[in-house]
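Lab notebook, bench 4. The sequencing result for the construct came back, and we need a structural model before the next group meeting so we can plan mutations. Quick request posted to the team channel:

Model the 3D structure of this chain.
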Amino acid sequence: MKPKVYLETTIPSYLAARTSRDLVVAAHQELTSEWWNQHRHRFSLFISVLVLEEVAAGDPVTAARRLADLDGIAVLELTAEAKVLAKHFLAKGLIPAKAVDDAFHISIATVQGMDYLLTWNCRHIANAEIMGRLANVAEDLGYELPALCTPEQLMGD
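Done. Here's the predicted structure in token form:
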């Protein structure tokens, strides 16, 4: 059985975007493409209805590219259990209220038993300073937090 990966919105966004002039963003785009082309086949991929909503927004041409990249990937719902877990993340101050969608991404991936949540959002999701506390809250409610990581961290050998 392949490890399960939840793709947060930044992944299809980086795949479909024009190469950035910002060197850090351009490097992230390149690493995302490398992971997508060379490593994704090792995993079972999942997205959520929230990801679909987010990638469908904005420029119609770019949105169509993002949606095309996600075609055929299993879609997870925002369940009542995921909403409860997200509320706990927010109530503990681990994720700010303005980033409620980030709490939903983490909670969906957690409740659905993902092994990894893949993202470039290192402010509220793949953030080493809050991961342990997110894991503690999830564990207190009977869940195991997936590894919150970037494509660079999920390249294998």
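The chain has seven helices and five strands.
Will bring this to the meeting.
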